[in-house]
Amino acid sequence: MFSKLLSSLTHRRASIPAAPAPDTISPVENPPGTADATLRGLIPGADTTTPDPVLVHREVLDEELGIRGIEFMIRGELRNKIATKRATLRRFLDGMLIEQLGSHTNPYRPNPLRPAWIQLGEGSLLRLGTGKLPARCCVLLQTEEAGQAASSDIRSLITNLRDAGHEVWLDDVLDTPWFASLAQVANGASLRMALRTPFEAGELLKTTHQRYPHLALGAWDLATPDDYELARRLACSRFSGTFVTRREDWSGNALSPQLLTVATLINQIREDANFRTIANVLRQNMAMSYRLLRYVNVAANGLTQPISTIEQGLVILGQTQLDRWLTLLLLAGGAMGDTAITEIALTRARFLELIGPYRLPPEQSERLFMLGLFSMLDVALKVPLAAAIRPLNLAPPMTQALLERSGPFGPYLALADACEKGCAEDICRYAVMLGLTTSKVSARQLEAISWVAEIAAQNPPDKAM
Fold first, then answer.
1. What's the CATH code of the domain at 50?
2. Residue 110 burial (CB < 10 Å; 0-12/13-18/19+)?
3. Same-domain status, 161 and 197
4. Contact by Cβ (8 Å): 130, 164
5. Together in a domain, 65 and 117
6. Is the dihedral of CA 197, 200, 206, 209 positive or negative?
7. What's the structural domain count of the chain?
8. Does the pTM exceed 0.90?
9. Residue 8: which domain range?
10. Last-in-domain residue among 207, 241, 275
11. Average pLDDT of each block of 10 consecutive residues along the chain (465 residues)?
12. Of 130, 158, 190, 365, which sits with the fewest C-beta atoms within 10 Å of its C-beta?
């Protein structure tokens, strides 16, 4: 996805919003406490100091580990304490999710580039209908009465949802009367793998696939690559969980010679090595030379003559763009899930860059962007992060943030970690530390997700190294 991706990065800074004044609130962002104020009215004795719920997300992947949608969830202290099986409270919380997602959605993009996945209860869906749902969304439908067949109203509503362009997946109710009554009208069915042994999950998925071959299957809450491989062998086509970005003990691994070359080039750029030196290194690697010239000719398509030499390409590209191109090339050097990891890293980088201007000058926001990319190098390359960044000779503030979550940039990276883990308490803590509200955090996450989706939509996956 690199040919046009870097040209999009070239114009990225023009779209970074200026930091608002401390006492102003964007019209699409809810004032602090708005959601919880309503919730406290439903829960007598609720703590008035409880922080706002925050919108968090997780990628939904396909068989080839490409990102095919984003699942959105509400996280917060009150959200975690509520017994969500109580119908009234469940409907309220589902409504809060739709409200939060809608308040941060771009009204000028009625057809999102990637569908939103949202978990809703039966009662919530009946109350909401199709009018308030995001466009082209995928509903993970849950029930409180899995032992009974679904009502005719639910069957009719699912049909209406599908006619409106939505998908409805029956969430974690395989082999129940409720599931059997809706399997013919639903698009798919998901299974929460973390709640079952591999044998149990395998039996449920195999039986469902045999009985309902038309129904798409999805595996949720996957924690390891082995979980993903099992689900893929069992005919699943959608996957969600932490398995792609899972960190393991890679202490015995080292950078390959090819990736070490890329890292060395990045370091040479920062040390202001001349383009002739860099061109000599690139000439020794045919694949890198080809990719560089291909990218430059796409990015500089206004030129009358194509770029045919490495030196010409480096001059046209410039030092800053060359630095970004090489960093993304380094990220794409991994094996499983390299496209997804690259997009997740770009989302993190863009998010950090968007929240930077609230406290930092523009040049520091640029560093936050690169910090977000570097923070995923260990996952992409399957080596310890310290080993991955050692050839880069980064400045101490960058290294402190990456390895210790300390220094001036540490809280920014810690906030990104909390968002990806869905830890509301940490999100609130680091947001306050950085002068943000949880609503701003949610809004900036959605902006970052949309920005990366737009880039990815223009670029098919590029596997060649």
1. 3.20.20.450
2. exposed
3. yes
4. yes
5. yes
6. negative
7. 2
8. no
9. 2-241
10. 241
11. 48 42 36 39 41 82 92 70 57 80 60 84 84 88 92 93 94 95 96 92 95 96 93 96 91 82 75 71 67 66 64 74 76 64 91 94 85 91 91 90 96 95 90 92 91 76 40
12. 130
